[in-house]
Amino acid sequence: MNRFLSLASFSILALSLFSCEKEYIEPTLETTTQAEARTASCDQYFYFHKVYGKVNYGKAAGEVVLVGFQEGLSLEARQKVLSKYSQFQSIDGEVALDSGIITEVKLVPGATCFDAEKLISKLLKEKTVSFAYPVFEKKTADPEEPALGLTNEFMVSIEAGTLKHLEKLVAITNTKILFSFSDEVHVITSDKKSTGNVLALCSIFNLQGFVQAAEPNVIYKFPPLELEEIPVAAQSAKIFKKGNFKAVKHRLMQQK
User: For the whole prediction, is pTM greater than 0.70?
Assistant: First the structure.
């Protein structure tokens, strides 16, 4: 039995597992406005996890998108690129990951998931942009609930002795091993030239027999506290030891 899928299979999976699906709603002329129709057509973002099955993040929020620019690009240069688009309001901050800086881009007031997706689509055509991802709508009305956003990083846990299989899979999908916790646990990065977005990649990696689990390194963006003047900085799942990152920390502590 093959330990990984063929390149032809990846091409098919990249199209079928683009990790978003359209929610179709029958239009009603009396009740559906143009804005409502656009929002209804927004993507549903998800990936398939080997252990938990389908992991659904829902629709993009209209407030912020997360953008990775070419390394070393100045704040002024980033501002110049973003200012070309009507959805852009301001640069809202930065998140430092091991793979580089992610720019938090704030959209204009009233922007919807449709506007966020449109801006992402435009930014991905920019030569200086390596990747762009949404922050998702919150699932509850809790004002302290953090918003989740995607990054270009994901973690992969593999069976012992299968590193060569992972290295071949990384080459096929045009991704990169950023660093390794151990011979079995690795953080991988992607960009717009990879085989699909980070959710599609997690789905593909989870389909491989030698992969135990693959999951994205999401960003947690916390709302500011009422009495706090300085906004709360966004942090990644790896920093908080969430999901498989938490399991990795536990395993490494046991090995010591």
Answer: yes
